[in-house]
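In the previous chapter we treated chains in isolation. Here, by contrast, the input contains three separate entities that must be folded as one system, with a combined length of 699 residues.
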Amino acid sequence: MNPAELTAYITSNFSGQLETVENDQAEPYFIVPLSDLVPFSKFIHDDPQLELNYLMNMAGVDTGEQFEVVLNPCSLVNMQRLFFKVVLDRGDPKFDTVSNLWAAANWYEREIWELYGFEITGHPNLKRFLLPDDWDDGFPLRKGWVGKNVIPLPEK
Amino acid sequence: MTQDLHTEKMVINMGPHHPSTHGVCRLILTLDGENVVECEPVIGYLHRSIEKICENRTYAQCIPLMDRFEYVTSMSCNWVFALATEKLTDLEIPERAEYLRVIMTELNRIASHLLCIGVTGLDLGALTPFLYTFRERELILDLFEMTCGQRLTYNYIRIGGVSQDIPDEFIPKCREFLDIFDEKVDDYEKVLTENPIWMARNKGIGVISKQQVYDFAISGPSARASGVDFDIRRDDPYSVYDRFDYTIPVFEGGDSYDRYRARVQEMRESAKIIGQALDQLPGGDIRAKVRAMFKPKAGEVYSRIENSRGEMGIYLLSDGGKKPVRVRARGASYNHLLIIPEIIKGLKIADLVAIFASLDVILPEIDR
Amino acid sequence: MGIISKLPVFTENLPGGGLVTTSLNQILTMTQAKSLWYLLFGTACCAIELMATGASRYDFDRLGMIFRASPRQSDLMIVAGTVTYKMAPIVKRLYDQMAEPRYVLAMGGCAIGGGPFYYDSYSVLRGIDKIIPVDVYVPGCPPRPEALLQGCLEVGKKLRTQKLEDWSGPKNESR
């Protein structure tokens, strides 16, 4: 399936609300409602036409205005890629784990929890692993965060 | 009598300063005698916050940081960042630059596999292959050094092309290397492939099933050793890889031994690609015109390339300004370390070293 | 007699052999300088250059330098690579485990002063001399193997000035 067909297939077969974003990249791009993250992930993971069972990347994002989580699954069977994201509530950033679908998401989510401080419901093992064990300096990848140990780059 | 013997489970700490963890990785092992019951990796000892630093640098300044993201194959790191950025522009990359990128990255792939095979030997107690592989690795580093002046962190592949053209003596030197390289690979194989100790230590150890490859997003030679015929160079093509004739070695065993064989075959294939690229190398510019204050379009992109370890990717979010809003670097070792606790269960502690080395886990691309 | 005649020793030739008198300090220093075992402590990029220095072309062994994985057997600690705040207590502990007299070589920009991660990084220790005393600095990102060899020879030079007291107790604070 080419990207246009893939977009059409997903929007017609998935029951929830999807927002398609036009872009000039090779893969379809969706914004999925937060409540539909797990159903949508399950649909693209299990659907025999899609089989997007390989999670290439998962990243937390702070654009300055909103918190997002970006997922990039692909399929090693029919070589398709997908790009989708969920937008989190800025006041109470929280999403459900997808690590029981893609085992690889286990550490991706753990990292997002650690560096962004998003709450992840249902994750099996939320423990610090990148930062020191006695870290108490907030969530470093959020925008506007200034840490105790940071020396900012001097302006010219 | 033996049934009455009672052994206690023991928790031991391996690392972060341990020569066979290839960097600074700590493993908390629960042992029953010599058998591993549980293994919990603790990472972060090399977390240099590259992603945060990138948010405060211009796009051109990010590329040297990418060198340090995964220093064994810096060329690929340079390339994947440049590729992600170029997807957000309409730059035309000159053909010569594309070929130079392919040549350098494939040379770097060979150098990385040489390091992996040599160090695997060292970890399993064979010193000779280490000395052999580093002898040839130095020849490749010489080629890099004459091109960009550095042995390890190149900063060679830039946005829009490469930083400088190859010198005149590069092509004859490179051909000289390719001429002897196949024989040298035969030498390594003579020392290792049929070696009974090597086979005993590696065969049937750390088997990764096909399903696990999908679930844990294993990639590169480690996935191809498990029978998954997938290579980004062929299946999600980028640059000029579609113009070369090469095969992608696939093995079915999924164990450490097959991962080793996949790497050896891949080195031979890379040498073939370099030979063809040198034959086809066109003249012309090496760099597209990029403005000093470079700004890509607003947008987001995930681009990936085939690194010597597997899939290396960059997620890039740009708001059209001169600095990226978010960079996430994805290294193959991240997922390879994640699977080790799954496949080590029930094996001996000595096998852990073999698995660690054969998956070619290195820590900088995990910690970033 | 070639080597012996160059040393500050007293030699007495006797029939069927000879007698050599020298100071204990001299003999200990000489043996340590000729077999400077180093602690393999690689964390990042510089570790790869450290390995290359130990391998075929540059051959550390000809200086009598052999890597040890245990700090208790080593005289020199080569800190090759970035040290983060999470890693810093471990570096300190390894240094404390080494026997006197001990030497530290900081290899590369990160170990010297944070290198490319000096600005904007929240996790990198800006120079290992904040936690342990450093004897020789080898700059570069990463330094070439020749530079590292030179650095090790400098350690050898410094080592020849050591006193017998250095072998027993903790070192003078002012070192």
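The mean pLDDT of chain C is 82. The interface with chain A takes residues 85-86, 118-123, 126 of chain C (CB under 8 Å). Compare these points with the single-chain example from earlier in the chapter.
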